[in-house]
Amino acid sequence: xxxxxxSETSCLAGELLELQGRWSETEAMLTAVKDSHSVKVSxxxxxxxELERDLGKTANSLLKEKKARKPKSSEVRHLQRQIERPRTxxxxxxxxxxxxxxxxxxxxxxSRIGI
Length: 115
Fold this sequence. Notes:
- The chain is mainly alpha-helical.
- It has one domain.
- It contains 2 helices and no strands.
- The longest helix has about 100 residues.
- It comes from Brassica cretica (Mustard).
- This is RING-type E3 ubiquitin transferase.
């Protein structure tokens, strides 16, 4: 019986050594995966930082463009008003003159008095 226990102990010791070897291999693989993950995370953080910086530049350029367009659009409206003003004045003055002068078929005041 003691010999059976001794052989079983030897067998269990061998299995323990094998399991310890597998454990070491598993820990090494886990460390490699963690390191690889850490490198990927670092690269992604750098990429995210660059994208955020580019996004900030894009947002700033869009704001600058918007600010630049605003005066241009008001200038365009001003110029359109300046273009429309003489046309409007011409139309209004023509209408006023038309209302003040009798139509060409109406008898003139000279013919009314007999001249």
